[in-house]
Amino acid sequence: MKTVRLTVGQALMRFLDNQYVEFDGVETKFVKGVFTIFGHGIVVGFGEALESYKGDIQVYQGRNEQGMAHVAIGYAKQKNRREIIACTSSIGPGALNMVTAAGTATANRIPLLLLPGDIFACRQPDPVLQQIEQPYNLNISANDAFKAVSKFWDRIVRPEQLMSAMINAMRVLTDPAETGAVTICLSQDVEGEAYDYPVEFFKKRVHHIVRRAPGIEEVKRAAEVIRNKKKPLLICGGGVTYSEAGETLLNFAEKFNIPIGETQAGKGIIPWNHPLNLGGIGVTGTKAANLAAKEADVVIAVGTRLGDFTTSSKWAFQNEDVEIVNINVNSFDAYKMNSTMMVADAKLGLLELEKVLNEYGYKSSYVNEINEYKADWDSEVDRLYNIELEQGFSQTRALGIINDFIDENSVVVGSSGSLPGDLQRLWRTKGHKNYHMEYGFSCMGYEVCASLGVKIAEPDKEIYAMVGDGSYLMLHSELVTSLQEGKKINVLLFDNNGFGCIDNLQVGQGIPSFNTEFRYRNPESGRLDGEYIPIDYAKVAEGYGVKTFRATNAQELKEALIAAKNEKVSTLIDIKVLPKTMTDGYESWWRVGVPEVSNYDSVNEAYRNMQEEIAKTKKF
Q1: Residue 571 lies in domain
Q2: Would you say residue 620 has pLDDT above 80?
Q3: CATH code for the domain of 490
Q4: Which end of the chain is more exposed for a tag (fewer CB within 10 A), N or C?
């Protein structure tokens, strides 16, 4: 057997550079880059391999480990999970900074390869700098924290272990049903150890992403559920996006006259103005989609995790006879909510179900309801987009201006706060795959960093990070990296002086506003209820080298958008909006943990209301 002597780090780079995926006959190089922040636990071992390797992998310099991993998630998500950027870090704090990103990737079913440095396998110099020691188990390191948020986890303590570890890593990363964060911990002494690796390990390896076809009996069972139902509803989830099944779902809907509700991950592939598209569904959904959900007697969920925001905490489906048909490549998701399941690729599942329903001569019983729901909602969006307030600039008005301005080739990126709700309800998607929302984890700090990942994936498009001031303050480190790499992104920062979304939730459950607004501490009350803290975000970003603008009204925003589009470097528009000018729930409900007893009558009332709504939810 022919071998080549390499260090673990060198072997890892050579292996990664020879991984490919194939989907529908198209072959793509899988690992396109590595993001790193060097520390003592990675710079000498794997760092040497990164510097000396002359293959076809780009190495990027991050600013914050969580931030750079969010860049990688944004990239992989925009590439429909068929290309990735790996992330490596030092041990201890550097590694632990990536745990949040690992949770983000796994919750959203996005492939993310993490290569954190680890403690010495030999243990001889223990305890080393940044090592956490547990006297009851010397095998534990900080990297064990990744186990709860990874789909595959391994630690390399011998050079030959790299082979089985990486083959299993690729198995998970390229599996549409099981993908998520994969963590391969690199013991810092072993990174530099050499081994005679089989040359065969480094040959080009193509991982075939196969569309899973549904079983015949699964299709028949699903069709039997649907055939006698009068008011079906389709839910378009992220699986439709990754399966590239948007056209298939739309044809299915048109053939049987079925309205469509979109999840955050499924939005952006069906045109907003299609007569059957009722927009976002659930807690942050539209009145149109949520009314249809209430009356539906069968829900056909396609490629969705059926999270609480999609189902309104299992409250959305009020029809006593409602049943759920669930098409999902992941059996865990397909079984949810007592569904009649089809474990299948979204495209193949819809095509096979369409054949059987055709044989039955199926058609929904909708007459004018869908058009009425949609027309009513379109009017509401027009109203919200054109609100003018004497006191200041409303968030929905700002969104309307931005939506009108952005062309169909641009991509908007979001994740947390009140903006995802406003965007799912109000954003009128143009083009294809131009709505990039991370809402499986709703991770604050994702927006700016992921926008860089999207820009790397889509270098010819304008990318807009839609971010609130709270999330921006939490993490925007890779804005600097965007300047370093010459990858222009546009940050649209909505400053409403605090965590406005959570303030609304707090007050909405009868609790006085507390620690959710950005105010000075009041020496009289001892609380944070003084004046708002005036932050000039434009000035701060200007110090980085970003081109900045300020907007406090419609005209200033319009002028700033035009100017930003003409810039060659990353931009930031500091948009000052009035607090509490976002949208609110439309025919939806969200279950949160309201206190059972309180000194506030308003809280006690909120608890009673919660119990009433719980009684209406599905108990599965």
Answers
A1: 386-497+533-576
A2: no
A3: 3.40.50.970
A4: N
